[in-house]
Every structure is written in C-alpha cells, then in structure tokens.
Fold this sequence. Notes:
Elements: H1 7-11, H2 13-27, H3 35-42, E1 50-51, H4 52-66, E2 73-74, H5 76-98, E3 106-107, H6 108-122, E4 129-131, H7 146-156, E5 163-165, H8 166-180, E6 187-188, H9 190-205, H10 208-216, E7 224-225, H11 226-240, E8 247-248, H12 250-258
Antiparallel strand pairs: 1-8, 2-7, 3-6, 4-5
Helix pairs in contact: 2-4, 2-5, 2-10, 2-11, 4-11, 5-9, 6-8
Amino acid sequence: MNFKTAAMTTALGLTVIAGAAAVNAEMGHGRGDGPYQKFQQADTDGDGLISKSEFEVRHDSRFAEADTDGSGGLSLDEMKAMQDARAQERRERRFSRGDTDGNGEISAAEFAAASDRRFDRMDANGDGVIEKGEGRKHGKSHHRGGKRGHERFAAADANDDGVIDRAEFDVRRDARFAEIDADGSGSLTLGEASAMRDERRAEKWAGKAERRFNRADRDGSGEISEAEFDAIGNQRFAKMDRNGDGSLAPHELKRGHHKGGWRGHGSR
Length: 268
C-alpha cells in the first residue's frame, strides 16, 4: 500500500508505515515521477484502475521489503527504516525538480522561481495576498492548520494585517534560503536540504511513530504481523474506495491524499 502518494507515510503515519503506508507513500506528491507514474506501476493490467488484488500485491511486496530480518513481523525499527527510505526518495525527487539546470545544486534564482510558483498556487483567488487557509481550500496550503501552522503564518505576516503579501512572502523565502544554506555558498545541496527536512521531520514525528506503531500492533507483541499489516491495508483501501466498486480510480487516490489518506510510509 505504500505506493500511492507519499502515500501513507503521513496519512497513516507509522500505521501506514506499518502497512497501508506502502502503497500510499509511493504515490508521491504529484508531478512527473510522482503519483501518476506510481499509479501506472500498480495498475498492472492497464485498465486505469487499481483493483483490490493489485493493491494487495503491492501491499505484500512492501511488507516483504520492510521485513529485513525475514521474521514474518515488522518491528518499530524496521518500520522507521522504511519510512526513512521513502522520505529520502521524496527529498531527492523534490530536489531534482528544484535543480532546473541539473548541476546538483539549487541556486538562489532557482529557489526564488520555485517560491514564486508556490505563492501563485497558494494565492487561490489571485489577489496578490495569501489569507489564512486560502490555499488549503484548494489542497495547496503551506500554512496548514493547527498550532504550528498558525505560528508560521503569524511569523510571515510581519505587519500583522491578517494576510501575507508578496513582499512578506519573499522576506520569509530569503530567510529560509539562508537558513538551509549552511555553508553560505549561495546555493543549496541535497545534503543541506535533507538536513533541514530531517530536523523538521524529527520535530513533527517525535513520539508519533511509537504511538501509531502501537495502534497497529493490535496484539501487543511488539511486532506488526502480516495479518495486522493486511488489516491496515484493507481498512485503507475501503476508505479510499469512495464509491465502493472494489477498485481505486486516480481521483479517489487524489482525494485520499489531500485528506491524509494517501500519505504514508513513503510519503512523497
């Protein structure tokens, strides 16, 4: 199941990581080598749908991949290792998209160009400012809800007028670039970008992995058995199969992703 959109990693988190994450995580976040390519890989008969059996094949392969010691169960360390591997794949894809000239670094100009595109996506109504939750209504918000999201919005809203204008956004962008550019070279390497993401990810996931793992480990054995992993997968499939026809269409996966459903192990 970790194959869908970055899939379960975020959505099911470790639980996802625990199982459903397999298909979801793989789907990635969206362009070129992301979700749709992964969808095609899972859709082995090419009929434009992912059937339950196709979903299960992918799910089973993820379990075998995560079970590195061949014990028939997944430990917390194995689940974390799989999540870390998926996260690194996503970082590399995102970095490649930002490195438009392919020289192995993201320049300040490339960073600014990506930032400009992000602002335009978040400014859903095109009025030149970003309001709280504006992008989220369209599944594009960077300033997500919750305490952390509100804190980030407030930090960017320098004049405290309740919106983030382009100038404020650019100030935040430049500060972010300088923060990531650890060696002060004026460009970003994959290592620098990964280090920043690792730090934020550690904050976000502190304690969550264990809690989600424990929920998935229903018998309290300290491992997620194949049956427990399958149960997660079945639950995830049923939730994403909105129309109950026994298969997943691209739009169902996309909706699941925006609701957290397609983000799991790998999350992309």
